[in-house]
């Protein structure tokens, strides 16, 4: 990483120039990823960060990237816990007691790995009790 990868880039670029070959991938055009739909990259580049809403309310935010809302704003913590524990959300719901524990803690890591549980989201891990760790 770092210095070695910069050196590798310089050497590869020089060799491509010497051999008359482009060093830019013709498929991704140097982006290292493909758009799922036309204009996706432009939408991502036009994105602007949004501050949390002002006033009273409860909302789930992710903080892995720049931070963005994951849930609607609710008037109470119980309403947010209800949304988080709604099975209609598919594979992203958690049991009600786990949602309430997460809200009480106010934060959870992205994920946790343990010998007894394997990988679980940080919200799921917030619901672990001492006897399950």
What do you see in this structure?
The chain has 133 residues and is α+β, with helices and mostly antiparallel strands. It folds into two domains: 1-31, no CATH class; 61-132, no CATH class. The chain has five helices and four strands. The strands form two sheets. The chain has a two-stranded antiparallel sheet. Strands 3-4 form a two-stranded antiparallel sheet. β3 and β4 form a beta hairpin. α3 (77-84) crosses α4 (96-105). The chain is elongated and about 65 Å long. The model has no long low-confidence stretch (mean pLDDT 85).
Give the topology, please.
Elements: H1 3-19, H2 40-46, E1 61-62, E2 68-69, H3 77-84, H4 96-105, E3 111-114, E4 118-121, H5 122-126
Antiparallel strand pairs: 1-2, 3-4
Helix pairs in contact: 3-4
Please give a handful of descriptors for the protein shown:
133 residues, alpha+beta, 2 domains, two-stranded antiparallel sheet, 5 helices
Gist of the model:
The protein has 133 residues and is an alpha+beta fold. The chain has five helices and four strands.
